[in-house]
UniProtKB/TrEMBL annotation:
Region (Disordered): 70-89
The species this protein was found in: Izhakiella australiensis
Localization (cell): Cell membrane
UniProt feature, compositional bias: Acidic residues: 70-80
Residues annotated as transmembrane: 12-31
Descriptive protein name: YebO family protein
Membrane topology (UniProt): Single-pass membrane protein
Organism placement in taxonomy: Bacteria, Pseudomonadati, Pseudomonadota, Gammaproteobacteria, Enterobacterales
Coiled coil ranges: 35-65
GO cellular component: plasma membrane
Keywords: Cell membrane, Coiled coil, Membrane, Transmembrane, Transmembrane helix
Length: 89
């Protein structure tokens, strides 16, 4: 009788160990999958950041060009001093 009890407890521990191993492999699969997705998202975000930097640089060039044209069109008055707007007491 004792041999039967000892044999079945050994089988139970092997089954429990197998279940733990299978659960660990399933958990590793989902963690690894999430990590791969996160890496792909990071690559996409970095690509978007580079494109945004290029767009900002182009926009800055365009606005500098427009501002330069406006300054050339306006006569430069050196008399635009704000201290003349403040009345003295």
């Amino acid at each position: 009788m004792n041999e039967l009890a000892n044999g079945s407890s050994g089988l139970t521990s092997i089954i429990a160990f197998a279940v733990v191993i299978i659960a660990a492999l399933i958990a590793w699969y989902f963690v690894n999958r999430a990590s791969v997705k996160a890496n792909a998202q990071i690559r996409l975000l970095e690509a978007l950041l580079e494109e945004q930097k290029q767009q900002n640089m182009l926009l800055r060039r365009l606005t500098d060009k427009v501002v330069g044209e406006e300054e050339a069109a306006e006569p430069a008055d050196e008399d635009k001093d704000f201290t003349r707007l403040i009345p003295e007491r």
